[in-house]
Amino acid sequence: MVGNTFPYTVQDWLEDIELAHVNCIDGFALNVGREPWQIDRVADCFVAASRTSTPFKFFFSFDMSSIPSSTEEDIELLCKYLAHFGRSERMLHYSHGIFISTFAGEQSFFGQSSLDRAWALVKNRLSAVVRSPIHFVPSLFIDPGSFPKMKSLNGAFNWNGSWPVHLSSDSSRQEVEVPALDSDNDYVRNLKSRTMMSAVSYGFFTHYGIESWNKNYIYRTDNWLCVRRWEQLIAMRDQVDIVQIISWNGEYTISGIYVITDNELLDYGESHYIGPIKGAQPNSQDWVDGYPHDAWLKMSSYFIRAFKNGHYPPIEKDQIFVWARPHSKDAQASSDNVPRPENWHLTDDKLWVVVFSQAPAVVFMHGRTGVQEVNVRPGFTKLSRSLMPGDGIKVVMMRDGDAVAECSPKGFIFQGYTRVYNFNAFTASS
């Protein structure tokens, strides 16, 4: 999200590009809003890219929840970005056109009589600026059944596809255990041969009160949500053209060749970041600071390679990845002006573990009530154990009497109380 990069320098962009590339990501989707300063940060991004030989790409994801779109003149802001950067060799070209996306836009009519005519006009205007076709794959929050009638679309992005957003307070326990993530099917069926962009995400918790953005809820991200989603998309990769990971400090994208990330104003505050915590936070420090997600980034590279290559690669190193919330779900906050988030009960007090094992091994998960011992095969294995207040994290992988990997992060204690509600994830790796 470019909206989180106000204090970024060219060096910050360069560090992010190189870190993403090392972890098998091939580009950033640049989510841009209405603020005039954002185009200057994008310029820094392109300067940074010019200073590296890393084959990194970019596309614009216009944030239509921010950018005005009621009149035809509002198209000028979109054109401005293409005029400045559209002819750069760093722009992502897809299916003979410059790839363009959005966040939202279902209410963007630009003075036209229909949504389809509006975006057809936008495409024509952008195409004239860059003298190239536009490959338009937006995230429109509309019924996918309307896609066949929309000639302006070259595809669509299922932004909400990675979270069980359908869960509600009256969901049965069985539904909560392993909720379905099957909304891609409607997109694939209605897009037919057009571009399908799916989403992967690692969590969602936001905690803003009515005096600010009034967003205070979680989506259930238990049961190794991110890994299950990767497994699903790897299995259906012949139906999915691009995967966008939500998020870096925003979102990233992968296709059979590309992996791209986007930058959006509330994304630190929505807890689904996967890149370094830096830049400008949208008043989310209470639940973001001290909760880096770099272990998720490190783990992602394995699944990215599997998606891109069509098969799971061999495990090259014994590794352990863990994540957990910092306090029990029913803990009462002692000094929080914002209530407990909606859907707080649709989660479990558990430690989620993924192990990468080169050969058969035994994994020991330590807790106050004892040690769980699990035999694992070569490959990756998903494990978990319950957490009780006072538990720390210690997971050890043993083979032939030797510890080949250990994850014992210092400073983490699962609490039965809290100062402010925090359903963000603490992550760590061996």
From TrEMBL:
Record-linked InterPro entries: Glyco_hydro_71 (IPR005197)
Q: What domain of life? A: Eukaryota
Q: Pfam families under this entry?
A: Glyco_hydro_71 (PF03659)
In the record, what terms sit under GO molecular function? glucan endo-1,3-alpha-glucosidase activity
* UniProt cross-references to CDD domains, sorted A to Z: GH71
> What's the name of the protein?
Glycoside hydrolase family 71 protein
Classification from the root reads: Eukaryota, Fungi, Dikarya, Basidiomycota, Agaricomycotina
